[in-house]
Amino acid sequence: MLSTSRQISAAQVSDRERDNTLPNINKILVIRVDGIGDLLNSTPAIALLRESYPSAEITVLARPLNAPVLIGNPDVDRILIFDRKGKHRGIAAQLQFYRQLRRERFQLVVAMQTAMWSHFAAFLSGATYRFGRYQKRFRSTLTHTWRGQYRKGETHEVDRNLELVRLICNSEGKRKLVFHLSPDEIATAKAQLALRGIIPDTFLIGIHPGGSSFDKRWPEKQYAELADRLSHQYNATVLLLRGPEEAALVENIEKAMEARAIAYAPASIRELGALLSCCDLVVCNDSGPMHLAAALDVPMVAIFGPTDHVAWHPLSENASIVRRDMPCWPCSAHKCKIGWECTKKLPVEPVWDATTEKVE
Asked: For the whole model, what pTM was predicted?
């Protein structure tokens, strides 16, 4: 599975009795400039790198959207941000960024995100060891590659990332997401809830109806019916949480509800995480907030559509998923020919059953 320009033998790779760590590693860069969930599901692998290279400085290259989840992470020394749509927009700004990357003099770069740009950035860093998966273009620029293949419905993303770095680490690692909130962040979230009349003994159910794409979003009408049932059956206070571009989505749910809900737009990912930690139960779609709740071990019901639920289910014993099994799964979600029936026609009843099981 591991190939290298230095022809590492199969015996060297497979012998688990030996130390697989690379020599003279003082600075490590991990590349993960995609989603919130992608980065959170990489934190166990980053923790394994910290365990195997305890004296090395570990830097994570992230983007403005996902970088905040690393604040307070004990396995990460520094965060570099690549802002393709902002500060680093345009050729001149990107060239300046690549020069800065090269001046860092990393000895090891792990392209944990399997993407052409990640391989390209690893090459431009000038690192002695450039490690990633043997997929996508510019793979020839990597010095070490993992050549395995994953079929849909078989392996969780956390295990994929752990399996990648195990080839250069000296233990198996732990399947535990890492996301830390400070006491001040939690206290601030509680203060915001108190301003809205949500006192500590309130039975609080957080609903986050958003998602990164249309195919992942359960319809507003179903969310409204679920929220009404929870409000009436359990005298629950429903907190509707949303992202910056989801105001209309939450407003539609409020209008369709008979009961009163409290809508709130957190100012940041970290504030969202703090608010989720205050909830007794969270109901959400397959999304970044779902992985935040999983990292915090908040009781949760997650609604899945066409996404590979085996690879991306929330990694928490307190989480349950609800999905409509379809004969066309596994699929290419963005090219659906039947209108994403797996998500859009998922009835309320199975979601209600899963939530009542969590509540009771």
From this structure: 0.91
